[in-house]
């Protein structure tokens, strides 16, 4: 009798079905984790920029006219990139609150990304 070599078609189909099932389970979890990581990175970037804006206003007695001014005066090393848009130019700059009564043009910053965060809130509201 001749010894058979290789795999049968049924064995290959079963292995491919198992691999597809595992990929179907792992892929959604992976993409959800990537989305959560981007949201956490954006929250961190917003907190750092807002802290730098507050420190700038406290030190200089005015708000900066742009985010680049925070970099020039060394309150930030660089303007962080929005992880959702992939650009440092997509930040939405908001004027200082009227109650602050300080000159300057940038009192707060928000993301220019469209869509909702994993928790259901709008990115533009952060």
Percent of sequence in beta strands:
under 5%
Question: Helical amount among residues, as a percent range?
Answer: 40-55%
Number of strand elements: 2
Radius of gyration: 25 Å
Strand order of the largest sheet: 1-2
The backbone outline, from C-alpha atoms, is rod-shaped
Q: What structural category arises from helix and sheet content?
A: mainly alpha
Low-confidence parts: none
Question: What is the overall number of helices?
Answer: 2
Domains counted in the coordinates: how many? 1
Reported for the largest beta sheet, the result is: 2 strands, antiparallel
Q: What is the mean predicted local confidence, pLDDT?
A: 92
H/E element string? HHEE
- For the record, give the distance between the C-alpha atoms at the N and C termini, rounded to a whole number: 73 Å
Explain what you see.
This protein is mainly alpha-helical and 126 residues long. The protein has one domain (10-125). 46% of the residues lie in helices and 5% in strands. The protein has 2 helices and 2 strands. The longest helix is centred in the first third of the chain and has 52 residues, at 9-60. The model has no long low-confidence stretch (mean pLDDT 92). It is found in: Membrane. Keywords: Membrane, Methylation, Transmembrane, Transmembrane helix.
Summary keywords:
126 residues, mainly alpha, N_methyl_site, Bac_GSPG_pilin, Pilin-like, transmembrane helix, methylation
């Amino acid at each position: 009798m001749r010894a058979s070599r290789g795999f049968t078609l049924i064995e290959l189909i079963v292995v491919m079905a198992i691999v597809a099932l595992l990929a179907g389970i792992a892929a959604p979890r992976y993409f959800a984790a990537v989305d959560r990581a981007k949201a956490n990175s954006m929250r961190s970037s917003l907190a750092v920029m807002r802290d730098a804006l507050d420190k700038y206003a406290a030190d200089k007695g005015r708000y900066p006219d742009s985010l680049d001014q925070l970099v020039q005066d060394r309150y930030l090393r660089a303007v962080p990139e929005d992880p959702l848009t992939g650009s440092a130019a997509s930040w939405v700059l908001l004027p200082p609150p009227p109650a602050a009564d300080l000159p300057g043009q940038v009192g707060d910053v928000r993301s220019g990304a469209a869509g909702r965060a994993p928790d259901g809130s709008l990115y533009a509201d952060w």
